[in-house]
Amino acid sequence: MKGCHLSPEPVIDYYFAPMSGYAYLGHARLLALVSQTGTSIRYHPLDMARVFAAAGSFPPAKYPDIRQKHRKADMARWAAAFDLPFNETPAFWPAPMQLACEVIMAADAADQGQVTGAILSAVWVQNLNISVPKDVATALVSAGLDPEPLFQSAETDVVKERAEVETQKAIEKGVFGSPTYVLGDDWFFGQDRLDFLAEALPKL
Q: How far is CA 38 from CA 31, 57, 63, 177, in A?
């Protein structure tokens, strides 16, 4: 219509580590939120060890025992609140994240949410090692996904470079933890800020 200007669709930039417990706890709610609001997501899977190092902070695996204890209890409470299956002491955490980042980047935009959910669940539900192709394939199959084309794409130089660039760009942007949701100039760090993110989004 002449003289009518449609507002661009809002986009959430989703920065996360593929092994992040708090990203796992918020992932399903994030997908539900974008479905309800007509929003889209740009996925930024990160090698969080490098992000922590650049930010001068400690990864959760290196927290002192007392902080680990309370962190696990907090995560278990969130899982119970949203009726999510959750293993507070996963067998393969932490684990190298390069393969998982590459597989997520290899997915089409329409499938990245499902692929990301499968990989997060691999760590926190299925006790799988996301640095091992066989285990990642198991997680993908359990989510109804075909791992073969994803692995083929993940092996290409283009995807490997994209995955590498994601972490470097996040460091340059100032991302310091997972999950971080960015909407325009507003940052929402942690899955416990999803309600604030929801308030900032236009409703359908």
A: 11, 35, 38, 26
Cβ(144)–Cβ(137) below 8 Å: no
- CA 21 to chain CA mean position, Å: 9
User: Which residue in 83, 90, 184 sits closest to 139, CA to CA?
Assistant: 90
Percent of the chain with pLDDT over 70: 95
- Closest by CA to 22, choosing from 14, 11, 13, is 14
Q: Provide the whole-model pTM.
A: 0.93
* Cα separations in angstroms, 166 against 16, 21, 120, 148, 190: 11, 20, 18, 23, 19
* Cis, bond preceding 179 (omega within 30 deg of 0): yes
Can you read off the two tokens belonging to residue 12?
């959430």
Lateral strand order in the sheet of 40-45:
40-45, 11-16, 180-183, 186-189
Mean pLDDT of 130-140: 98
Name the DSSP letter for residue 193: G
Judged by average pLDDT, the poorest of 5-9, 16-20, 91-95, 151-155 is: 5-9
Helices 133-142 and 98-106 cross at an angle (nearest 10°) of 40
Sign of the alpha-carbon dihedral angle for 202, 79, 193, 179: negative
DSSP 192: G
The single-letter DSSP state of residue 181 is E
